């Protein structure tokens, strides 16, 4: 059966979904629309059923994209696309609003189960609910009390769902207006008034709310304060980035050491040949060069999930609305921009909820400037190479401070570009943003760990396939080249004094370096080197820049493959290898100014083909993604040039 999970925003619907499905989840789109659909599998008496997480809405009046999804799914979609059963998650502390949406779903003739969730919060407020009175009002709908955050009520819910599956008798609420005529605004107002009156009569007997309550000093007085709120938010971000570098070092070293042992073991077992070289010099360095950054990605998303699950992130969105409004944006832009810190693709797609076209276009345009998770491997590799491991004032990690600075640079640049577009683009009127601040909740560790697992899974599976393919291609291009040209290069090398005066092991390294330079990839790299030399990059970095247009994190995997191809050691450590690389003049390839230049380059460069494709789809024009590509590319080159010459 197809079971739909309904509810208002902030009712704990996602918690119920995670509780019922666990890891058996997938992401897609609703048929015919581009709104995300999260679905999973639940099992009842050995039978698997599909559970679909419907977007959180307050009613099925089709006034925005999410409500249109619900309306079309229930009223106008083909029979095979409609759900067979619905689970409605209601907020126990705001039952009237939840029952409004619930009663509309009853009118659609859909068998339902009503879940009254978050009873712990309602009890703290002194609210009591008479479940028997509610059950009399909705006799055909099982009603279940739950506290999904701690897993209470799961078995009761599954039992109620089983009962509805066996019975499947729809219940109809008697109202004067048909839900199929909700396009008329006046009809909506009349229908809503009747529905509110009906719900009010039910709750007179079923709901008791204390008239007086003890006043509490709210944290929101400080968290949303126009001055203190920003200080607190900045402090939280500062602490997060300090943790990213402090605690990730140990697992990163362990992962890198493990891959080193694997490479050494393969070289000891297998005979020298193309297959051994492909594994040890191509695939393993490429994959390990990205997987080593999983600890940092996991720590970052752990804190983001923690802030979201506790309710603080909604307050940060409210706070940032004040900041972004002068730049032509509003609070609805904050969520897509924050989402872009994970990945610009869902961030761009999340702008569909912005009704104002100008504000939506500006948000789409600047979203890629928010540093996404794909940049983390690049930033952390470069920071580890050129920024010393030292503490300021005895407790502030300099490396974490630099990482925070890169994120701030992206945010400030995004706001500046948004302000420029705000001055250029014209609009008839400004929009406003209304949002509900949820109650503070104790974080549910199961949800947080599940979120971290999903983020790491997406990062490794999506990036892993691309990196594996590119690593194989790069290894082949680095291992082979024009035979005549390579022979001449080796003959010239053997005539040099440097070659004649070195030991045999060092001669092998010199030969590998010459062969790499005269390989197919070396020829391409030498061709583009004049373009990137002014910003401090050699041809090997240039190759990594080109390949990272597929995905930014490929930069690290490409460097691993390129440098492993010319390596003579049994164990390969990318960070140690890059630290020791020198230019022909004896200077280090990855100097401070080169590292800073590369970091700034990656803050701006539009190196993500998938994001360009999504921007084209959302704007229905190639004009905007092409403008992003060239404008951000120019900013990246200019920023890299300034940093290289200033430092």
Short description:
This protein has helices at 13-21, 65-76, 95-107, 119-124, 131-137, 154-167, 185-206, 220-223, 228-269, 274-291, 294-310, 312-324, 331-339, 344-349, 357-366, 375-386, 398-424, 445-479, 483-494, 497-500, 504-517, 520-532, 539-547, 554-565, 574-579, 592-604, 609-619, 623-646, and strands at residues 2-7, 25-29, 36-44, 47-53, 85-91, 112-117, 128-129, 143-145, 207-208, 391-392, 396-397. By secondary structure, it is of the alpha/beta class. It is elongated and about 100 Å long.
Folded structure, characterized:
By secondary structure, the chain is of the alpha/beta class. The protein is 61% helix and 8% strand. It contains 28 helices and eleven strands. The protein has helices at residues 13-21, 65-76, 95-107, 119-124, 131-137, 154-167, 185-206, 220-223, 228-269, 274-291, 294-310, 312-324, 331-339, 344-349, 357-366, 375-386, 398-424, 445-479, 483-494, 497-500, 504-517, 520-532, 539-547, 554-565, 574-579, 592-604, 609-619, 623-646; strands at 2-7, 25-29, 36-44, 47-53, 85-91, 112-117, 128-129, 143-145, 207-208, 391-392, 396-397. The strands form three sheets. Strands 2-3-4-1-5-6-8 form a seven-stranded mixed beta sheet, sandwiched between helices. A two-stranded antiparallel sheet has the order 7-9. A two-stranded antiparallel ribbon has the order 10-11. Strand 3 and strand 4 form a beta hairpin. The N and C termini lie far apart (63 Å).
């Amino acid at each position: 059966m197809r079971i739909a999970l309904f509810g208002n925003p902030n009712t704990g619907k996602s918690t119920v979904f995670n509780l019922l499905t666990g890891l058996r989840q997938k992401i897609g789109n609703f048929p015919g629309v581009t709104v995300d659909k999260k679905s999973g599998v639940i099992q009842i008496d050995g039978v698997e059923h599909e559970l679909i997480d419907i977007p959180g809405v307050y009613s099925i009046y089709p006034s925005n994209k999410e409500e249109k999804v619900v309306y079309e799914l229930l009223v106008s979609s083909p029979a095979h696309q409609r759900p067979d059963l619905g689970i409605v998650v209601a907020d126990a502390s705001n039952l009237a609003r939840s029952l409004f949406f619930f009663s509309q779903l009853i009118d659609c003739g859909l068998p339902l189960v009503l879940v009254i969730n978050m009873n712990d919060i309602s009890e703290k407020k002194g609210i009591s609910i008479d479940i028997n009175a509610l059950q009399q009002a909705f006799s055909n709908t099982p009603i279940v009390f739950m506290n999904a955050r701690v897993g209470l009520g799961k078995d009761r819910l599954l039992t109620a769902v089983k009962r509805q599956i066996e019975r499947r008798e729809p219940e109809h609420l008697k109202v004067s207006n048909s839900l199929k005529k909700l396009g008329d605004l006046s009809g909506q107002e009349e229908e809503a008034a009747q529905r509110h009156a009906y719900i009010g009569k039910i709750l007179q007997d079923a709901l008791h709310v204390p008239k007086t309550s003890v006043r509490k000093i709210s944290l929101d007085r400080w968290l949303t304060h126009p001055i203190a709120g920003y200080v607190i938010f900045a402090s939280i971000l500062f602490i997060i980035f300090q943790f990213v570098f402090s605690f990730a070092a140990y697992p990163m070293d362990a992962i890198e050491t493990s891959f080193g042992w694997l490479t050494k073991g393969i070289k000891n077992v297998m005979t020298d040949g193309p297959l051994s070289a492909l594994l040890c010099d191509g695939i393993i360095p490429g994959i390990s060069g990205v997987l080593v950054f999983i600890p940092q990605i996991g720590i970052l998303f752990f804190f983001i999930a923690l802030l979201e699950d506790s309710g603080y992130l909604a307050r940060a969105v409210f706070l940032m609305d004040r900041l972004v409004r002068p730049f032509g944006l509003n609070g609805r832009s904050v969520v897509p921009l924050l989402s872009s810190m994970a990945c610009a693709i869902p961030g761009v797609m999340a702008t569909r909820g912005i009704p104002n076209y100008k504000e939506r276009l500006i948000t789409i345009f600047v979203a890629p400037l928010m540093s996404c998770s794909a940049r983390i491997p690049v930033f952390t590799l470069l920071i580890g190479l050129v920024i010393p491991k030292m503490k300021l004032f005895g407790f502030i990690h300099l490396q974490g401070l630099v990482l925070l600075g890169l994120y701030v640079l992206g945010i400030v640049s995004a706001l500046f570009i948004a302000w420029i577009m705000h001055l250029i683009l014209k609009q008839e009127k400004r929009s406003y943003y209304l949002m509900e601040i949820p109650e503070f909740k104790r974080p549910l560790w199961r949800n947080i760990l599940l979120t971290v697992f999903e983020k790491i899974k997406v990062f490794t599976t999506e990036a892993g396939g691309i990196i594996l393919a590119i690593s194989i291609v790069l290894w082949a291009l680095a291992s082979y080249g024009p035979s005549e040209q390579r022979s001449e290069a080796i003959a010239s090398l053997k005539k040099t004094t440097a070659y004649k005066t070195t030991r045999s092991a060092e001669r092998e390294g010199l030969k590998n370096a010459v062969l790499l330079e005269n390989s197919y990839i070396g020829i391409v790299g030498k061709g583009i080197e004049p373009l990137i030399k002014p910003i401090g990059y050699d041809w090997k970095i240039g190759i990594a820049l080109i390949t990272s247009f597929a995905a930014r994190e490929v930069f690290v995997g490409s460097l691993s493959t390129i440098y492993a191809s010319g390596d003579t050691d049994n164990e390969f450590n990318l960070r140690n290898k890059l630290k020791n690389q020198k230019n022909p003049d004896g200077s280090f390839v990855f100097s401070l100014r080169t590292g800073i230049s590369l970091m700034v380059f990656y803050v701006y460069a539009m190196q993500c083909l998938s994001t360009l494709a999504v921007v084209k789809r959302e704007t229905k024009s190639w004009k905007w993604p092409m403008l992003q590509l060239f404008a951000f590319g120019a900013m990246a080159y200019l920023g890299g040039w300034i940093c290289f010459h200033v430092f």
